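How a chain folds remains the central question behind the approach discussed here. This step matters because it turns folding into a mapping between discrete strings. The sequence in question and its structure tokens are set out directly beneath this paragraph.
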Amino acid sequence: MKISTLLTLFPLLIPASVLAGTLLYTDSHHPPTNSDASVTVIYLDGPERLQAQLFGELSPNPDEAAQQAQTVIQSPQWQAHQQPMVMAWRAVVRARELGVKKVPAVVFDDKDVVYGTADVAQAIALRAQAQGGQ
């Protein structure tokens, strides 16, 4: 196995808890505030927005809609768009695995969550307050 292949697969071999940090699960209606580069922002409406960009308005007729979708999937540009779509859906699945029930939600180290704010600084303060100022 080549080193480059191993390095590509390395993140897949690490348990998710090792990669844990601060994640903001939100949607396009609740943009992040007071966030920095250490916070990963995940838009849970991202897959739908990407799908709308890629496929546009599909026909209400199922046969026509299937043909329209096939045209997009068979286009030369599809491969470039496929990976972002996969990553967006993986983020949604991860949110479900963590038990995120609504947005916005700031998740700390895959265990603590603060709901109701996309303001990361406020979420950090609320978490500290709930932990007794620790």
